[in-house]
Design a protein that fits this description.
Layout: H1 3-24, H2 41-54, E1 60-63, H3 67-77, H4 82-98, H5 104-132, H6 138-160, H7 171-180, E2 185-189, E3 192-195
Parallel strand pairs: 1-3
Antiparallel strand pairs: 2-3
Helix pairs in contact: 1-5, 1-6, 2-7, 4-6, 5-6, 6-7
Length: 196
């Protein structure tokens, strides 16, 4: 191993520990615990940050009050991919930034670890919340869990790109913070950012 390679590995260690701490803390989050409750000021601000960051200044947060409404909103997203396409462009930019700090294998390993930890946290949280809301549709429950895993990976990319302290916050962090506040930000459909 060349000295430059060894130095690069040493430089990556603090960042890898930071992302690991994020992943290990996922089990302690209050995931899916405030579904259907009125949006508070902080949640509206996070929604605004997310929408502005994606380039949708005319869209607004919309409250979904139950799992059935969330299922309909998730289905509507299939016909309105603009938000998803914008997120993919942001994701590619974060991967590019992260690759300046970590090697490709390191990024992939970290995202797999975050995905595993997020999946474990999502499984328990979704099952509990769905039992309270009388939701048993596996496709909807899988969509909620998958959305959380995607959001956790987005937040991890922000950390790997060392953009977690940006002001305003990166849209992926704003979305993640909605999950941490017990919400399911289902997604953008038309000019509404649907949040359960």
């Amino acid at each position: 191993m060349a000295e430059d390679d060894f130095t690069r590995l040493l430089d990556e260690i603090p960042l890898l520990y930071k992302v690991r701490a994020f992943a290990d803390g996922l089990a302690d989050a209050r995931l899916f615990m405030r579904l259907g409750e009125p949006l508070d000021t902080r949640e509206r601000d996070l929604s605004r940050t997310y929408l502005d960051g994606l380039g949708f200044p005319h869209a607004e947060a919309g409250l979904l009050t139950n799992w059935d409404e969330a299922a309909e909103a998730a289905e509507a997203m299939d016909f309105n991919p603009e938000g998803w396409e914008t997120e993919e462009m942001l994701r590619a930019g974060l991967v590019s930034e992260a690759s300046m700090r970590l090697d490709e294998d390191g990024i992939q390993t970290v995202l797999e670890y975050v995905g595993m930890k997020a999946g474990e946290a999502a499984q328990d949280a979704v099952a509990y919340s769905a039992s309270l809301g009388d939701m048993s549709d596996e496709a909807v429950l899988n969509a909620a869990a998958g959305s959380l895993i995607q959001a956790a990976n987005g937040a991890a990319l922000v950390i790997m790109a060392e953009a977690e302290d940006d002001d305003p916050p990166h849209p992926f962090l704003a979305r993640w913070r909605l999950f941490v506040r017990g919400r399911w930000p289902v997604g953008l459909a038309g000019s509404t950012y649907n949040i359960l």
